[in-house]
Amino acid sequence: MPELPEVETVARDLRRAHLPGQTFTGVHLFWARTVACPDETSFRARLTGQTVETVTRRGKFLRLDLSGAETLLIHLRMTGRLYLAPASEAAMPHLRLSFDLGDGRQLRFHDMRKFGRVYLTADPDSILGKLGPEPLDETFRVDDLQNLLAGRKMMLKPLLLDQRFIAGIGNIYADEALFLAGLHPQRHANTLSPDEGAALFHALRRVLTLALENRGTTLDDYRTVTGKPGENQDSLLVFRQTGQPCPRCGRPIERLVVGGRGTHICPHCQPPGEGG
DNA sequence: AGTTTAACCTCGATGC
DNA sequence: TGCATCGA
DNA sequence: GTTAAAC
C-alpha cells in the first residue's frame, strides 16, 4: 500500500532515472478507467509532445508538471506500480497504461487491482488543494497538529487516514505512529492532552522518516521504480504483527477493526481512554 | 455528524 | 484436489 | 486506497 514514504521514493527514483526532460511521444491505454480525466481522446492529444519538467509528490499523489502548463497526477491506490523500461522489453502482467518516451524508454503503470488513477489537468490545485498539511514539511509544527486535533472529535485512526486532515498517512504508518505515541486508535482526537498531541507529532515524523530512509514498506505489492522491494518491513513494530510480542512490553499484539480497517495495537501500551 | 459497510478489482491464503 | 470465503 | 451509500 503506497503511502507517503513509498510515493516519495518513487518520485525520487523517477528523478534519478532522468524522467524530467523526457518527452511523451505516445500513449497506450489498456484499462480505460485508469485515466480518471479527461476522456481518452483528449488525454492522448493533450499529453503527446509534452515534456516532463518536474516530478514531485503531494500526499500520496505523484505530480508530473509538463511543458504545456498541464500537470499529470498519478495515484497508485493499493497495488499501482511505476516502472521505466526499454520499449523493446516485454510487458509484465497487469499493465494498464504506458507512455512512450523520446529516448526509447517507456513509463509503465502496472496495477493488479485496477484501483489506481491518473489525472491530466491544467488546474492540479483543484485536486491537491483538498489535501491536509504535509507531515514532513518543516512548516508543519507540533502546535499545528495539536490545534488540528483539538477541533475534531473523531477517533484518531480514521482521522489520520483522512487525507483532508493530514496528507500521506495510510494504514501501515497510522498503526505504527499510534503505537509509538502510546495512543489507542479509538481515542477521540479532542481528548488528547498537549503532551499526547506532541507525542503523536513526533511519532508520525519518526515513523515516516524511518520508512523513507528504508525506501518504503513491501508487504504485498509495493515495488520501487527498479522493481525492487522496500526494506522497511523489518522495522514494523505492530502492523501485521498479530500475536507477536510487543517490542516494548512483550504482551501479544492484537488486531481489531476500526473504521473498517484492520488495526494493530498493543493493548497494554495503548490503553483506551475514558469513553474511548 | 459520525461511523460502518459496500463498491471498485484481482489474487493468494485459508478452510472444509 | 476443488471450491467457497476472506482479506489485502 | 478512496468514495458513496447505509445505519
Q: What would your notes on this structure say?
A:
The structure is a single chain. With 276 residues, the protein is an alpha+beta fold. It has two domains: 4-128, N-terminal domain of MutM-like DNA repair proteins (Alpha-Beta Barrel); 142-265, Helicase, Ruva Protein, domain 3, CATH 1.10.8.50. Helices cover 26% and strands 23% of the residues. The protein has seven helices and eleven strands. It has helices at residues 4-16, 40-47, 125-128, 142-150, 156-161, 171-181, 194-213, and strands at 24-29, 35-37, 52-58, 61-66, 71-75, 80-86, 95-101, 105-111, 117-121, 254-258, 261-265. The protein has a five-stranded mixed β-sheet, covered by helices on one side. Strands 1-7-8-6 form a four-stranded antiparallel β-sheet, with helices on one face. A two-stranded antiparallel sheet has the order 10-11. β3 (52-58) and β4 form a beta hairpin. α6 crosses α7. The relative contact order is 0.15. The mean pLDDT is 96. The protein binds three DNA strands through residues 1-3, 33, 60, 75-80, 94, 111-117, 153-155, 158, 161, 163, 170-171, 219-221, 257, 259-260, 262.
